[in-house]
Automatic annotation (TrEMBL), chains A, B:
<keyword id="KW-0238">DNA-binding</keyword>
<dbReference type="InterPro" id="IPR050109">
    <property type="entry name" value="HTH-type_TetR-like_transc_reg"/>
</dbReference>
<protein>
    <submittedName>
        <fullName>TetR family transcriptional regulator</fullName>
    </submittedName>
</protein>
<dbReference type="InterPro" id="IPR001647">
    <property type="entry name" value="HTH_TetR"/>
</dbReference>
<dbReference type="Pfam" id="PF00440">
    <property type="entry name" value="TetR_N"/>
</dbReference>
<dbReference type="GO" id="GO:0003700">
    <property type="term" value="F:DNA-binding transcription factor activity"/>
</dbReference>
<dbReference type="InterPro" id="IPR036271">
    <property type="entry name" value="Tet_transcr_reg_TetR-rel_C_sf"/>
</dbReference>
<dbReference type="Pfam" id="PF17920">
    <property type="entry name" value="TetR_C_16"/>
</dbReference>
<feature type="DNA-binding region" description="H-T-H motif">
    <location>
        <begin position="32"/>
        <end position="51"/>
    </location>
</feature>
<dbReference type="GO" id="GO:0000976">
    <property type="term" value="F:transcription cis-regulatory region binding"/>
</dbReference>
<dbReference type="InterPro" id="IPR009057">
    <property type="entry name" value="Homeodomain-like_sf"/>
</dbReference>
<feature type="domain" description="HTH tetR-type">
    <location>
        <begin position="9"/>
        <end position="69"/>
    </location>
</feature>
<dbReference type="InterPro" id="IPR041678">
    <property type="entry name" value="TetR_C_16"/>
</dbReference>
Length: 191, 191
């Protein structure tokens, strides 16, 4: 078909790039594989060749220019009593970056959409990427209760600052915010 | 038309009840005034008679069997050093109640949907109901920074426990959770 190419070494990457943009701007539910294929200029069948359905493509598209898990692991290579501020500082650095923010917002909207897909994605994203880093990389270890509570404050800060837009959280300097919220994370870690 | 009634004293209430159910089960975006009219058994024109569009109907439908603002105000009638636990305890009591939870989840999904309607609703719900209670009812007053930070932990706990379903937060006893998260709220209040 005119304008459609068959598989090349870059096809998979182009599909992922188109998917990332579509998921970010329209959310998971409203994005179709057909529209992604159109944006990528490929035949829809090629998407099925590379990915086992929309969920699998979304998970691949979430593999952002960075790996949240690796970034967190790196940030958590500090003494235990500095872990709280380090977690928030890293989270804000990643989310403040305009290269990542649209994709991350797309993921977040899908996570909170309350659909079955949202449940799948929670497992892939929150439990697959963020929580293991907290569990494994904090010096001395943390309880599951602590992981959940840390997660709740991280999720709330992200929703308030980036999704809903609660002031003065939106305008605050990220380091000031890390110093204010860090002790909350630290207290949960030490529970 | 058969099955459709013209306005009666209860019509407004029946429209609101139908709207509440529709918004809760389908979210704001996917709910149409036409489908609400059908559920309520009234002519769509009657909805426009009582409400100035879908946003206005949603705001009316959010006027839950309880007023979040009044409930919070009541809960905050305690000494300042008990406000943190009181806020979380009240929030969990309301959200754990199966009579309110579906409606509240509908509101939350709409707030996080990232659409223009979400922005409108944020103003109506978060800033119109929850934040003023925090601002006005805490003995001695709080800073705007504190209001935002308290909001972030409340939102995150709600999203984690009720929307995403993060364990062990889902299974935890509400009083235990209030005792664990209360000190976070208290620290923000005292910042």
């Amino acid at each position: 078909m005119a304008g459609r190419r068959s598989g090349t070494p870059d096809t998979r990457g182009e599909i992922i790039a188109a998917a990332r943009e579509a998921f970010a701007s329209q959310g998971f539910d409203r994005t179709s594989l057909r529209s992604i294929a159109r944006s990528a200029g490929v035949d829809p069948a090629l998407i099925h060749h590379y990915f086992d359905g929309k969920d699998a493509l979304f998970v691949a598209a979430m593999d952002l220019p960075l790996s949240p898990r690796e970034r967190l692991a790196e940030a958590l290579d500090v003494p235990r009593d500095q872990a709280g501020v380090a977690v928030i500082r890293t989270m804000l650095t990643v989310w403040d970056d305009e290269a990542y923010q649209p994709s991350l917002l797309g993921v977040l909207r899908s996570l909170t959409s309350g659909t079955a897909a949202g449940t799948e994605l929670r497992t892939a994203f929150v439990e697959g990427m963020i929580f293991p880093a907290l569990r494994q990389e904090i010096e001395g270890g943390v309880s599951e209760r602590a992981v959940g509570l840390v997660g709740s404050q991280i999720i709330g800060l992200i929703v308030a600052r980036y999704l809903i837009g609660v002031e003065p959280l939106v305008s605050m300097d990220s380091e000031e915010l890390a110093q204010l919220v860090g002790p909350t994370i630290q207290r949960y870690i030490d529970l």
